[in-house]
Specification:
The protein has three domains: 1-163, no CATH class; 251-484, PPM-type phosphatase domain (Phosphatase 2c, domain 1, 4-Layer Sandwich), CATH 3.60.40.10; 492-604, no CATH class. 60% of the residues lie in helices and 11% in strands. The protein contains 22 helices and eleven strands. The chain starts with 15 loop residues before the first helix and ends with a helix.
Length: 624
């Protein structure tokens, strides 16, 4: 057969051309378009060369020459039709693949949009949908998806607006006027004003009113009934406020874990003295940074819990801004919303996703500790700054933003005053020095930040001797972990892997954007894919050489070892289909060999031996 094909063993002797065409059809069935086209062109080339040799060896025989040219042209026409068919099938196949990929992307996008809607982040959902549409605005499936999802998001927005409770509706006008800085008009005056306005002016005014109200609603969410109830003299209403705050605080995080954080490991926990905590911490993220905070409100109970609720909401609202802007906005908003002598000490951190740099700003909070892996030492840094809500910040230059660099293995610890001001059995304070010494002590034998936290808390509990915590006690630990970094194009680690594993550029590209700790899993997947391709090649060799029984055994073995691929399944299916035919051919060949031997004996006149052998064969195999 030709270069790409091998003659199947134990099959009837058919024309090489038809065998080659059948082999091309197998490549087509496997969707191996390049091999199919290459084989087709090789057939034409071989047939043409064969024709030239025939004509040369039979020169002068015009009839013979004409006949063979006609045969060649017929074969050439058949191959050309086959090539045209292959081109159409390949295009159809690629179109289907493209559609399938878009369907996968659309399903993923749908899932993400639904998630954002369920979290009441309808604006984020709409932004995501618009971005996806702009990237693929020429795709019909994307256009249809965009139209459908836009309706879904708009319904969610309308539903969100409609969920204003009775209390908000009752006080909506008063609240809205306060927010936009206008005095509330008495109903009679307002009625006269409405009559003076034209229809479209009134319609526009109503639209702007609801637009402003909806924009400010998120900020005012926690100030609605709670703020009113706290300021009431009635004891019953104060109890209702406390219960409402307690319910709100059950939704605030008391334990902070983020397993998917890039470049870092994070763990924190709040031990509350009351059900309503005066401590809080959290983590938000935007495109380039993580934003982390810890806050400690003055006092305990309802008042402290209310302040913390406001602080949390403000932080979430301003998360897209820079750390300096967040600092100023939170401070000024708290000052405007809270009574005098109510404020929050805290610390804000802006953690860059692409490196080890951290920006931070203090709000009159306790110092922080930094453990350095290389030296084994613990540093103490004073944060500085004024407590949030203490006074209005008018000049941005008053806010000092500082930098910390954490190397691999370094750990940052932030804590609330409930830790260092905890009292022992004799009334003495736990103190910042003891906390620093205990932190340094545990780091000599422990590197897991969860276990470090547990050790610190157990030491504190032992110091207190079982006495209840007087104040909320919080610890937040941030560890630099280079294994969680994302690998980027050009990183040395990728060059080393490429050389060691002998990977191609497209295979290396698949590792870009992965976390270092996940590289081994990704590499294993790539190795398995390469091994799967090698296995498919081996099975192909067995198939085209006609070794059907071995093909079946090997295909089954590879599948049991976990190598799953549609081409392996194809070869196993073909092996099973041909197994019976193969056995029959083997048996017939064996009988043919016996027949040839007996025929030789018969010609020599050894009739007795022939008869005995025939009787034995008939008894064993029947009338063959």
């Amino acid at each position: 057969m030709f270069g790409l094909f091998r003659r199947k063993v134990n099959t009837q002797d058919v024309k090489a051309f038809e065998s080659a065409v059948n082999a091309i059809n197998i490549y087509v069935a496997l969707s191996d378009w390049e091999k199919a086209k290459m084989a087709a062109h090789e057939i034409i080339s071989k047939e043409k060369k064969s024709l030239e040799n025939l004509i040369q060896n039979n020169s002068g025989d015009k009839k013979f020459e004409k006949k063979n040219i006609a045969i060649f042209e017929k074969k050439e026409e058949k191959i050309k039709k086959l090539l045209a068919k292959i081109e159409l099938l390949e295009k159809d196949y690629n179109d289907k693949i493209k559609i399938e990929r878009f369907n996968v992307r659309i399903k993923s996008m749908k899932k993400e949009i639904d998630k954002l809607i369920s979290q009441s982040k309808t604006n984020d959902a709409l932004t995501l949908l618009n971005s996806f549409y702009k990237e693929n605005e020429n795709e019909i499936s994307v256009i249809n998806f965009y139209k459908k999802e836009k309706i879904v998001i708009q319904r969610a927005i309308n539903k969100k607006i409609g969920r204003l409770d009775d209390r908000t509706k009752t006080n909506a006008k008063l609240e809205a006027m306060t927010l936009i800085g206008e005095d509330y008009k008495a109903p009679e005056e307002e009625k006269i004003k409405k009559e003076d306005l034209g229809f479209f002016q009134r319609l526009k005014a109503k639209f702007n009113f609801w637009k402003t109200l909806n924009k400010k609603r998120e900020e005012k969410k926690l100030l609605d009934e709670v703020n009113i109830l706290i300021e009431e003299d009635s004891k019953v209403k104060k109890e209702l406020a406390a219960k409402k705050l307690e319910k709100m605080h059950s939704g605030l995080i008391k334990e902070l874990v983020y397993d998917n954080m890039i470049g870092y490991d994070l763990y924190g926990k709040i031990l509350g003295a009351d059900k309503i905590s005066g401590d809080t911490f959290g983590l938000e993220e935007n495109r380039n940074n993580y934003l982390m905070f810890l806050g400690d409100a003055t006092g305990h109970g309802v008042r402290a819990g209310f302040i913390i609720s406001v602080f949390n909401q403000l932080f979430k609202t301003f998360k897209e801004k820079s750390i300096k802007d967040i600092y100023i906005d939170i401070n000024n908003q708290l000052k405007q919303k809270l009574e005098s002598k109510n404020f929050v000490t805290g610390a804000l951190f802006e953690i860059n996703k692409g490196g080890s740099s951290i920006k931070y700003a203090g709000m009159g909070h306790e110092p922080i500790f930094i453990y350095r892996e290389k030296t084994g030492e613990v540093e103490k840094k004073v944060l500085g700054g004024l407590a949030a809500g203490f006074r209005i910040i008018k000049d941005a230059n008053q806010v000092k933003i500082r930098d910390i660099k954490l190397e691999d293995g370094d750990i940052l610890m932030i804590f609330s005053d409930g830790i260092v001001e905890a009292k022992g059995v004799n009334g003495e304070f736990y103190g910042i020095d003891r906390l620093g010494e205990t932190f340094k002590k545990v780091l000599k034998f422990e590197s897991d930040i969860r276990k470090i936290y547990n050790f610190l808390i157990e030491d504190l509990k032992g110091f207190k001797g079982g006495i209840k915590f007087e104040d909320d006690a919080s610890i937040l630990l941030l560890k630099r972990d280079a294994n969680r970094d994302l690998v980027k194009k050009g990183d040395q680690i990728l060059e080393d892997i490429k050389e060691k594993e002998n990977l191609k550029s497209d295979e290396i590209k698949r590792l870009e954007g992965e976390r270092r700790e996940n590289l081994s899993k990704k590499l294993e997947a790539i190795r398995r894919e390469k091994e799967t391709k090698r296995i498919i090649s081996i099975l192909g060799e067995l198939y085209y050489s006609g070794e059907i029984l071995q093909l079946k055994q090997e295909a089954i073995r590879y599948i049991k070892e976990g190598y799953i691929d549609k081409k392996i399944n194809f070869y196993l299916r073909k092996a099973i289909e041909n197994e019976n035919n193969y056995r029959i051919e083997q048996k017939n060949q064996k009988m043919q060999n016996k027949y040839n031997v007996l025929l030789g004996l018969y010609k020599k006149g050894d009739y007795d031996t022939v008869i005995k052998e025939l009787e034995y064969i008939i008894r064993k195999d029947g009338n063959f």
